[in-house]
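FORM 12-B: Structure-to-Sequence Request
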């Protein structure tokens, strides 16, 4: 019995250390990253890829009190354009957000007619058909596009409004400060992101907790409804890479 207890303690210690320094799981609560991420996706976030900041070690929305330091340590790479990241939003009660990096430090970002312009150059949109969706019991169709970023990253976005007609389709220019990033949701007409300076704005690198790498489970029901998981699981999304 004592040997079994030791093994359980060893396993628990490994899991805690791995979660603290390596990978952490999050559940997607909102629709701002559709169709890349859906409500009910459980994702794995790589915490060491950009090095560590104080916010890397947050437990939920709580910072570990004895880890109080500035900047990032053990950083071997920087966040790249197109990365999907989890970050602490200082302007929304320090809540955790997840968005895609569009602008790097020093960039000028502007939206014209729904098209992102980075340092004066348009990020091309390629028509990718339609995306069927349900919201509050209402079925509707959105336009789907592939957005091409300057570093070659292609990703899908959706638009409920016609290009140029969305609330945040004609905004900017934004000058991204050094040490900060400009982030946007893939669900362009249903995302509170860096385009809204008073609510999100530019994100300091210290607030980035890590890069979202993998969907390890996905379900359309609530997490506590375990008996429904076999019937509500989105099996086609399990263990898919986040792009």
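FORM 12-B RESPONSE
SEQUENCE OUT:
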């Amino acid at each position: 019995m004592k040997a079994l207890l030791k093994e359980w303690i060893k396993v628990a210690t490994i899991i805690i250390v791995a979660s603290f320094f390596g990978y952490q799981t999050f559940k997607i609560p909102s629709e701002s990253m559709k169709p890349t991420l859906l409500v009910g996706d459980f994702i794995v976030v790589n915490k060491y890829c950009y090095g560590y900041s104080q916010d890397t070690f947050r437990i939920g929305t709580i910072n570990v009190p004895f880890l109080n330091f500035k900047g990032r340590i053990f950083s071997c790479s920087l966040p790249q354009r197109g990365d999907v990241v989890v970050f602490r939003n200082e302007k929304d009660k320090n809540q955790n957000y997840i968005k895609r990096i569009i602008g790097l430090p020093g960039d000028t970002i502007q939206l014209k007619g729904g098209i992102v312009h980075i340092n004066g150059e348009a990020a091309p949109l390629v028509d990718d058909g339609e995306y069927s969706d349900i919201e509050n019991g209402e079925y509707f169709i959105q336009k789907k596009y592939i957005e091409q970023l300057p570093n070659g990253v292609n990703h899908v976005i959706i638009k409920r409004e016609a290009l140029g007609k969305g609330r945040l389709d004609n905004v900017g220019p934004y000058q991204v400060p050094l040490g900060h990033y400009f982030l946007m949701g893939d669900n362009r007409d249903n995302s509170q992101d860096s385009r809204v300076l008073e609510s999100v704005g530019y994100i300091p690198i210290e607030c980035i907790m890590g890069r979202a790498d993998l969907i390890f489970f996905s379900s359309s029901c609530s997490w506590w409804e375990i008996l429904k998981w076999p019937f509500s699981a989105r099996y086609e999304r399990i263990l898919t890479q986040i792009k």
